[in-house]
Design goal:
Chain lengths: ~300, ~475
């Protein structure tokens, strides 16, 4: 290596300060994990007390968690001189950041706060899990040195986050539908008698603050539509980047193909949703299937399958 | 002959009449199948399933690879079902063709009639969302008032007088109804672009050693590598220090058919585009070993001494049973070859093996620093010269990519139109009731009732208020 190489210098600085910086950004990271956990507690309390004050506490902790997580990502970017989502650790953290941001937006738009414990439990679990993948700071490999890393990656990660919220609302849909059917059926009558016989467990009392299942179905649809548009845009912008970096806009790389499979599953969802008979329960299961495919596309491909996208 | 024909055709008419009908209905059935939304959904799912298999099972490997990777029955299944090259297989491509076919049929038989319903009187009570408001005003006043109110709520209104009643038809965000068509058109344009690229495009790879030239006939270009350079940085990992590539750069001269030359610097993420639209990408690199052989102080031009030695290449020394096998380059020029945890030599050196009668003469490789030489017996000496860099460039010409890009934009635009906006169609019937009038309203959306329930409730209340205010 040529002496006095700028990268040597860069790396020397990096190594010297890394441990110290890593401790700083990890402190904010840990704080975010705890704050989100407190937020979950707040939102669970809201399930039972249903007062705006309790809701406010949950929201406060959520926003605090968001800020500290953003600080952690920002510091990581600052110390490494590049985007923080260049490896699995950074991207997992980014997904959960997006999930919280999108949830706050959808929550305000559709009054989705009842879904907060489920959504935040997922994001907090992602965050806690991501920690194990933190390999420290490293310079970017040449193929990642491109402005497209600012665009393609966050958009795809945002689509995952939207699908996560769609998954949560679909799961709650199934619970709510079960609860509605249970309430509608009269014991002794053949239809739904078995369902009715099963009394609703007390901890599911919060289903009373959940809007009707038909509304939830529409909300899931709208959230998933946002996710699908983001995924479409993300795949396309990835194609633009691949065109610059790899010599072809489509390489049949495992990440590309897995994303295509997810895209197709959600495209089926949107098509099926145009038919009344496929809205509701079937659509909810479809959304859960879609989310499983997203998990495969994200974890399955990153961790088990090697390809051009293997950035752990 | 003509008589026979006449008879036959006479027969035909009678016999064919029912058969023709049967054919019609078969065609009808096929068209119905193609225009059913479940059809693309099934295709999407097959497509997704094949794609997932392709994601999990390595593609385009030699058969042996599958037998090495999977247990025998699975490997057999993969090989026999031709799951080794899914993406370019006929069934896979047929799925897209089927989708295009079904999309075209669907557009005319389903999307257009269903999405753009005609303005005509309909039984209001049959709609999921319907309501009635009574007023003391006469029919004309009530109709005018209702129309004004709907307009104020963002509907474009049309009127019709029929059966002693006044009908109002309204649309909100009607343009968004075209979203489906736009999205589908986008998909068709992408498919066309991909097809065009496949039909008229080309791509390939060239490997050039420094100073070397190559001609790419299809592009009518001759290119020469003037220089290649690579940068690496040491990175601390839990398993020790590794060297990560930081930059690869090829300085290339292009000469076209007319002899005009241009120079280009090609880096990862910074391809070069020629005036004829051919893209050149930095794809790979190599540092080949360079060994010189002398005998009795005289240089020998032996096969393998031209500076392009790859791992396991051998130089056979004439008149002896001796050979030199090239191993690898170690050192700062290409530190990525240094195994983790092993200190990197401060100068470049080659790891080589010297063989005598097919047996290595040492039990460890010989490390030969650049510039130094080694006596290999029988009067032969081998000298390490600096490695020769080479670059691997990918080139591609794709006349379809503009179409693909345009199709992508259209697809996203269609998605946004179709998914973000809720077009609503309103039907209102104003008829005389007692001394006043009854206003019946119904609404439909392209996405079911639930999505518009709250707005419809507000619309109904607003209508009632506006009718009441008038009196
Ligand atoms: C892969 C390419 C395709 C894309 C990107 C696509 C996209 C879309 C979008 C965005 C919608 C609007 C959904 C909504 O408003 O909720 C839609 C609806 C629809 N699509 Fe597709 N589609 C594709 C292929 C097909 C095919 C092959 C068919 C053939 C039958 C089809 C039939 C339909 C129908 C029937 C509707 C609903 C129309 C209605 O109910 O008013 N689509 N599509």
């Amino acid at each position: 290596m040529p002496q006095g190489n700028e990268y040597t210098q860069y790396n020397a600085n990096l190594q010297a300060t890394m441990t110290q910086h890593a401790m700083q950004y990890m402190a904010w990271y840990d704080a975010a994990v705890v704050l989100y956990a407190l937020a979950i507690a707040g939102f669970v309390a809201y399930w039972f007390f249903r007062s705006r004050g309790v809701l406010g506490v949950g929201l406060l902790f959520t926003v605090a968690g968001l800020i500290s997580q953003a600080l952690s990502l920002g510091m990581r970017a600052y110390y490494s001189h590049h985007v923080p989502w260049n490896d699995l650790y950074g991207s997992l953290s980014m997904v959960s950041l997006w999930a919280v941001v999108l949830f706050l937006i959808f929550g305000a738009r559709f009054n989705l706060w009842f879904a907060a414990p489920l959504v935040l439990a997922c994001t907090d679990a992602l965050l806690a899990y991501a920690k194990g993948w933190n390999k420290g700071l490293a310079p970017l490999v040449p193929s990642l040195q491109s402005p497209w890393i600012f665009i393609h990656v966050p958009i795809v990660l945002a689509s995952y986050a939207a699908f996560l919220i769609g998954f949560a609302t679909s799961v709650i849909y199934l619970l709510k539908k079960w609860d509605e059917d249970r309430a509608a059926s009269v014991p002794g009558q053949s239809v739904g008698a078995a369902v009715a016989a099963a009394e609703r467990p007390a901890w599911l009392g919060w289903l009373d603050i959940v809007p009707s299942s038909s509304r939830l179905d529409v909300i899931s649809y709208r959230v998933i539509a946002v996710g699908e548009i983001l995924l479409t845009a993300g795949i396309i912008l990835g194609g633009v980047w691949a065109h610059m970096a790899w010599g072809s806009y489509w390489q049949w790389d495992p990440k590309e193909t897995a994303a295509l499979a997810s895209w197709l599953i959600y495209a089926s969802y949107l098509h099926l949703h145009t038919r009344p008979s496929w809205r509701g329960v079937r659509a909810a299961w479809w959304s859960i299937l879609g989310f499983v495919s997203i998990l495969f596309c994200y974890f399955g491909v990153n961790i088990w399958i090697s390809g051009l996208h293997s950035y752990k | 002959m003509s008589a026979v024909q006449a008879t036959t055709s006479g027969l035909d008419t009678r016999e064919h009449a029912p058969r023709k009908k049967a054919q019609d209905s078969l065609l009808e059935e096929v068209l119905n199948l193609l225009s059913n939304v479940l059809f693309p959904v099934v295709i999407f799912l097959i497509w997704a399933a094949l794609t997932t298999i392709g994601t999990i099972v390595d593609q385009n490997q030699p058969e042996q690879h599958y037998y090495d990777t999977y247990p025998l029955p699975i490997a057999n299944a993969i090989v026999r079902l031709h799951l080794t090259g899914i993406y370019h297989s006929v069934p896979y491509i047929s799925l897209v063709v089927l989708l295009l076919l079904s999309m075209s049929v669907c557009t005319f038989r389903r999307v257009i009639p269903k999405r753009f319903p005609k303005d005509r009187p309909v039984p209001i009570g049959n709609f999921g969302l319907h309501a009635q408001a009574d007023t003391a005003q006469n029919v004309d006043d009530a109709a005018a008032r209702a129309q004004d109110y709907f307009r104020s709520r963002g509907f474009t209104m049309r009127t019709l007088v029929q059966d002693n009643a006044r009908w109002l038809f309204g649309d909100r965000q009607k343009w968004a109804r075209y979203g489906v068509l736009v999205a589908h058109l986008g998909f068709a344009i992408i498919a066309f672009g991909v097809f065009l690229g496949w039909l008229r495009g080309f791509s390939g790879q060239v490997v050039l050693y420094r100073g070397e030239s190559a001609t790419i006939d299809r592009a009518n270009l001759r290119l020469t590598l003037d220089k290649f350079s690579a940068d690496f940085v040491p990175v601390q990992t839990p398993n020790g220090q590794i060297y990560q590539a930081q930059k690869f750069q090829s300085d290339v001269r292009f000469a076209d058919a007319d002899g005009a030359t241009t120079s280009a610097r090609i880096l990862v993420n910074h391809p070069h585009v020629t005036t004829s639209g051919v893209y050149f990408y930095q794809a790979s690199y190599n540092f080949a070993g360079h060994l010189a052989v002398t005998r009795g102080g005289k240089a020998l031009a032996l096969p393998g001494t031209d500076g392009k030695l790859q791992p396991q290449d051998a130089i056979f020394l004439p008149g002896t049973s001796r050979a030199i096998e090239y191993g690898t380059l170690l050192g700062p020029t290409d530190p990525s070859q240094t195994p983790p945890g092993v200190p990197m030599p401060s100068r470049d050196e080659y790891a080589i093996w010297v063989f005598h009668d097919n047996i290595p003469t040492t039990n460890r490789p010989v490390f030969l620093p650049i510039g130094s030489s080694l006596d290999v017996g029988d009067g032969y000496r081998v000298t390490a010269l600096p490695p020769t860099p080479s670059t691997g460039l990918t080139y591609r010409y794709d006349p379809g990519q503009g179409w693909v890009a345009a199709g992508c934009l259209v697809l996203v635009a269609g998605f946004v139109m179709a998914l973000f906006f809720v077009p609503v169609k309103l039907y209102a019937k104003i008829s005389a009731e007692g001394s006043g009038a009854a206003v019946e309203v119904a609404a439909t959306t392209t996405k079911g009732n639930a999505i518009y329930e709250d707005d419809f409730a507000a619309l109904r209340e607003g209508l009632r208020r506006s009718l009441a205010n008038a009196t």
